[in-house]
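[job 4471] stage=fold_predict status=RUNNING
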Amino acid sequence: MTRPKYKIENVVASVTLNQAIDLNAIAGAVFKAEYNPDQFPGLVYRLDRPKTATLIFSSGKMVCTGGKSEKDVYRTVRKIIQELKAHKIVIVGEPKIQIQNIVASANLGAEINLEKAAYLLENAMYEPEQFPGLIYRMEDEGVVLLLFSSGKMVITGAKKEEDVKRAVNKIYEKLKELGVLYVREKE
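[job 4471] inference complete, writing C-alpha cells
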C-alpha cells in the first residue's frame, strides 16, 4: 500500500485590526476592492498572489479565504496592509491573525469498505442513501473527515497544517488496523 497523500485546499482566517476602517476610502483608492454596501456590508479585496479573497469590515475585522497554506494567509494580510498604507489609509498596530479552519483533500491510496468502517468506528455516521461518504468526527484532533469508498477524503476543522497531516496518518493507520482498507487489483 502507498502512503496517504494530502493537499491543503483552503485556509480561512479571521483578522482583527483593532480599529475602525473607512471602506469608502479603500473602495475609492484601491482598484482591487469591490464594495457595494447595499448588497453586503463588507469590502472584498482580492489578490492574485497568493490567490485569496479577503472580506474587510468597517469594524476592522477581516476574513481571509482561499489560501493554500498558513503562510499564504500571513502573506495576504501583510500585502493588504502594505497596499492600504501605500494609499494613505492609516493602519495602527499589528493585525491579530487567527486560523479558523483548514480544509484539505487526501488520498489514502486504497479503497475503504465504508459499511464495515461505519460499524467499527466510534463517532462515525454513514447513510449512503443520503450521502455517499462516511462522516467521521476525530474528536482528539478536532477535525471532521469525509471518507469515500475510493479512498479519497476531505478533512475540515483543522487549525494547523500539522493537524491535517496527523489526522490523515491516524485514520490511515486506524483503517488499516480495522482491516477495512484494500488495494484493488489492476485489471
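[job 4471] summary: The chain has a mean pLDDT of 94.
[job 4471] exit 0
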